[in-house]
């Protein structure tokens, strides 16, 4: 059973999402919150698999709530999915940097919402290659930090190659084709790199790849 926490200051949004999710045999909404502070408390109480969090809320917004969840070892199993009205804007970008596994636009069709919840519950990032490229394009306009504290030397050459390809927006199958390996091996390289770099998910791995200088921004 996939346990979901809904965090949104609009009751209508919460009730609509709950009605849809509760119809599924493998999904259960365990709690609802109207702001990030309440959502964080409920996350600690219920330990959901997925936290669907609105990005703009009173008291504690979605970015700060995501950051606090990502920083809490007791909530390591909680995958944050950001809800937004506007797509990949500056708020979403900052939420991904804070540790969100991906994002959904609130006008998503029901089938895509259900698919997204199941994908996030598996630990996969909700970033299609096209969205990853948008993330990269937005990120290359930001100044690169001089020191991220990441131990890149711990990565093998194949892991570094795989991470670089992830940061270019390639899927696991595309990475496998490029590296001439199986998709399972590609996924293994990526998962090991994530563990070594302490990246929560693929979305954060992309950001870390650029912050570390492993991949150089391209002007395009």
Automatic annotation (TrEMBL):
This protein's UniProt keywords: DNA-binding, Phosphoprotein, Transcription, Transcription regulation
Per UniProt, what is one Pfam family of this protein? GerE
Q: Which PROSITE patterns match?
A: HTH_LUXR_2, RESPONSE_REGULATORY
Domain HTH luxR-type residues, every copy: 148-213
Does this entry carry the keyword Phosphoprotein?
yes
Superkingdom field: Bacteria
Sites where 4-aspartylphosphate occurs are at: 54
Q: Which SUPFAM superfamilies match?
A: C-terminal effector domain of the bipartite response regulators (SSF46894), CheY-like (SSF52172)
UniProt domain Response regulatory: residue ranges: 3-121
| UniProt protein name | Response regulator transcription factor
| Organism name | Streptomyces mordarskii
